[in-house]
Automatic annotation (TrEMBL):
Catalytic activity: 4 porphobilinogen + H2O = hydroxymethylbilane + 4 NH4(+)
SUPFAM superfamilies: Periplasmic binding protein-like II (SSF53850), Porphobilinogen deaminase (hydroxymethylbilane synthase), C-terminal domain (SSF54782)
Name of the protein in question: Porphobilinogen deaminase
Top-level class of the enzyme under EC nomenclature: transferase
Keyword Transferase carried by entry: yes
Gene3D superfamilies documented for this protein: Periplasmic binding protein-like II, Porphobilinogen deaminase, C-terminal domain
List of residues that carry S-(dipyrrolylmethanemethyl)cysteine: 245
Keywords (A to Z) from UniProt: Porphyrin biosynthesis, Transferase
Protein family (similarity comment): Belongs to the HMBS family.
Assembly: Monomer.
Cofactor binding summary note: Binds 1 dipyrromethane group covalently.
A single cellular component GO annotation: cytoplasm
Length: 316
């Protein structure tokens, strides 16, 4: 236990069911660490939660989910903000810091469907919902016979759209479904070779004001060393490729016995081009390994692929 302990901690969170589960999870962990502390949640509605009619890549990306929470940290209305690490921009900067990364849950993408047991069982022409360019690109490449259609909304909304027949199947993060008690809806977990996860998928991050060093010390016992190393590597890939959810980019690291294996890919969302790279080495060099994987992608033309996506040539 740190020398001092907090009297009160306020956790800023988005008001979605997933965000509330995550904030409550952190609340319970902190409460167990500091039984005398009052740990409270402050629920906020973010711009990202309000805009539901356009795909995320069109409305400005991940920052939408983070800004309102950061304002609460700045105002002193909250001490910490809990995020799905996947949704935290890689360019998080002063006066904020990502002070703790918690142990990761299942990082894989999950296949959810009423009638079908997995991607390989879907008939040609079946409609698969996802709004992630990363998932779309990998699906189109591996399963060109399927139709990929956009899917937005929080987890419950997405499942409702599947259930009312808008899609034959949808792809969601396994961790999110698990957290909401919806694990039974998962028909198959996609292997990293099939659908390489997004940087940070399945992990939680806690953001604080960097100046509040006492907070960092109080939160430190929640950190998971292996997940932190993976996050460093994966986020290094994203950073070097200018990653956001507007970019079809995947980065996935694992650590076994101190040894790290990082895989990364960028792809054209239409499945026409997919570039992979990987790196292995000691987990202690996580960030360098992520950078090496990113350089591998860049050496194979990743920058050109991404530039072409941002500035598409007029199609005939
Ligand atoms: N894109 C939104 C988002 N952010 C975090 C999760 C799930 C939990 C996680 O990955 O940690 C999800 C839902 C999804 O991608 O299906």
């Amino acid at each position: 236990m740190p020398a001092s302990s907090p009297a009160k901690l306020v956790i800023a969170t988005r008001a979605s069911r997933l965000a509330l589960w995550q904030a409550e999870h952190v609340r319970a962990r902190l409460q167990a660490l500091y039984p005398l502390c009052r740990v409270e949640l402050l629920e906020l509605t973010t711009r990202g939660d309000q805009i539901l009619d356009r795909t995320l890549s069109k409305v400005g990306g991940k920052g939408l989910f983070v800004k309102e929470l950061e304002t609460a940290l700045l105002d002193g209305r909250a001490d910490l903000a809990v995020h799905s690490l996947k949704d935290v921009p890689v360019d998080l900067h002063e006066p904020f810091e990502l002070s703790v990364i918690l142990e990761r849950d299942d990082p894989r993408d999950a296949f959810v469907s009423g009638r079908h047991a997995g991607l390989d069982e879907l008939p040609a022409g079946a409609v698969v919902g996802t709004s992630s360019l990363r998932r779309e690109a990998q699906l189109r490449l591996g399963y060109p016979q399927l139709q990929v259609r956009p899917l937005r909304g929080n987890l419950d909304t997405r499942l409702a759209k599947l259930d009312r027949g808008d899609y034959d199947a949808i792809i969601l993060a396994a961790a999110g479904l698990k957290r909401l008690g919806l694990e039974a809806r998962i028909r198959a977990r996609l292997a990293p070779e099939q659908s390489l996860p997004a940087a940070g998928q399945g992990a939680l991050g806690i953001e604080t004001l960097a100046a509040r060093t006492e907070l960092r010390a109080w939160l430190a016992p929640l950190a998971c060393a292996d997940t932190t190393a993976c996050a460093l590597a994966e986020r290094a890939v994203s950073r070097m490729l200018g990653g956001s959810c507007q970019v079809p980019l995947a980065a996935y690291a694992r650590v076994d016995d101190g040894q790290m294996y990082v895989r990364a890919l960028v792809a054209h969302p239409d499945g026409s081009n997919l570039i992979r790279a990987e790196a292995r080495g000691p987990a202690a060099s996580a960030e360098q390994l992520g950078e090496a994987a990113a350089r591998g992608l860049l050496d194979k033309g990743a920058a050109e692929l991404l530039a072409a996506l941002q500035d598409p040539a007029p199609s005939a």
